[in-house]
Write a structure and sequence with these properties.
CATH superfamily of the largest domain in chain A: Succinyl-CoA synthetase domains
Oligomer: heterodimer
Number of helices of chain B: 13
Number of domains of chain A: 2
Number of strands of chain B: 19
CATH topology of the largest domain in chain A: Rossmann fold
Shape of chain A: globular
Strand content of chain A: 15-25%
Radius of gyration of chain B: 26 Å
Helix content of chain A: 25-40%
Largest sheet of chain A: 7 strands, mixed
Largest interface: A-B, 62 and 56 residues
CATH topology of the largest domain in chain B: D-amino Acid Aminotransferase, Chain A, domain 1
Structural class of chain B: alpha+beta
Strand content of chain B: 25-35%
Amino acid sequence: MSILVNKDTKVIVQGFTGKEGTFHAEQCMAYGTKIVGGVTPGKGGQEHLGQPVFNTVEEAVRSTGATVSMIFVPPAFVSDAVMEAADAGIELAVIITEGAPVKDMMYAKAYAVKKDMMTIGPNCPGIITADECKIGIMPGFIFKKGNIGLISKSGTLTYESANQVVKEGFGITTAVGIGGDPIIGLSYKQLLPMFEADPETHAIVMIGEIGGDLEIQAAAYIKEHVTKPVVAFIAGQTAPAGKRMGHAGAIISGGSGTAAEKMAALEAAGVKVVVSPADIGKAVAEVMAKK
Amino acid sequence: MNIHEYQAKELFKKYNVPTLRGHIAFTPDEAVKAAQELGGNIWVVKAQIHAGGRGLGGGVKLAKSTSEVRELASQILGMQLVTHQTGPEGKLVQKVYIEEGADIKKEYYLGLLLDRALEMPIMMASTEGGMAIEEVAHNTPEKIIKVSIDPLTGFQSFHGRKLAFGLGLPVEEINTFIKFASALYKVYMDHDAEMIEINPLVKTGDGKFLALDAKMGFDNNALYRQSQVNEMRDLSEEEPTEIEAGKFGLSYIKLDGDVGCMVNGAGLAMGTMDTINYEGGRPANFLDVGGSASAETVAKGFDIILKDPNVKAIFVNIFGGIVRCDRVANGIIEATKITNVNVPVIVRLDGTNAIEAAEILNNAGIANIVAATDLADGARKAVAAAKGE
């Protein structure tokens, strides 16, 4: 078991024939992901990486039965691509592109919600179910199969955490990079219940960072509904207020969104919070030993 | 990205958000000329820097004659203005805005920003004009009235009514306020603004509303389609090293510690700073070198980190995913040939081809490069090196 995606998930790529789309689609296919086609307007009818190219997402869905789209289009075209996917009946759009305007995401997210399409990202590494399906840009080999679910705002911290978890002798069910933009798709609060319901996931690692209050919402949810152990790290304890730390959403504004308040809320919810990201693996080993 | 008060007011004027008349001046002579053009017998001389709290810092002064305008402009131009947002060193004032006086009856606060939880803009108003809104929110949250505005349907009159009645405005002023707020929402949306703050918004003796101050920030991701806003960018208000880093696709923020950091990925970069802190050291910077970590970007990263004389050691922390660690190792060695690195460099490379990378670094025999096995080990070694241990 896993959450959201598995070996049978059929995936199309929007921005299939571009440089990034091509490179990463190839990597995903090598991992075992069922990439069944792609969309590049104007290149419909061609073949790329041995798969059909379509002019519209609607055609791609109709002829391949894909339910997930991996989006690699340039930032200015992200909202259009997301809305097209939602309109075509895609169930989950994984938006890898970095740099989409916040206003565009505001419209795109609202539209996706209306059309009942889930989104992950933008500006994220994607989602991976170990040994089954990789939809994104993460290095697949790090994610050995196991029983730990992972939710993270940061790409490289996802790899770092997964690597530590594996070094401690555990592995990953599914890892979701949710992205660090001000407006994102699926967040902790939506993903936690999925991991809670997944019988193969025995513990959950959540990586947060400064800015916004998604981690606070997660803490409230965990307190009420999550019975599995949760390990958390919040990046940016040493970040100055008012400065954007790389991610568009990683900013302490008006004194709120600090690491300290998030860590306190998670601790109060019974989460094992680590101060140093170097201790994530050890903390997972600890909570798993207690089970 | 932020702009100056006078620039925000230019945008306001185009959308019929009422402001006072004013002119920008770079010299005392220009300030006097501006005052003469405006006419009247009272003017305000306002320092233009990208920071709030200018009035309290002595950067906003009232003049009752043109000679006083000259005197105040001479004082303010060239001063290092210190406010709660500038840090102790303050910011150099290079221009002043000369504005006509106003008959102020009451001061309010009006702001617009993205509510990340609701995923839509919210407009906030308060009767506590002129005060720092963070303090009002903290001490008397009931004095802030908020409305969320669905971007799909836009600003409606009821939004304005909720705010206006919340502020206790008399019925005959409600429509004037709604017009003001509605126009302001349009300024916000049309320019991909991230934040607008009018503090204070004033009501004049004749029942009109005016933006006495104006602060605007924008979504950097949308600047490509906001040419007018882009032209307003004032690079002298930004950190030179941060601008330079940006030109090379690096994201750099200077901090006040002594352990330099070079990391791939923003989250891991913050996590690395936190680890250094946890191990008893203090990070000198945030630096995300991005995905590629080539010899050129690494060399540029070293250059930028070493511009800070406080840096006593550098911790390079790269988690190689798609980018292979052996390539990064070669990049680091190349970088030390391109640029002179005169402090210990602790390198932790993990992920794809990490073992090969360690060999490359060890075989290169560069005296001040020390390999680390993992994140904690690297942070410990870097902290020790910075302490001269």
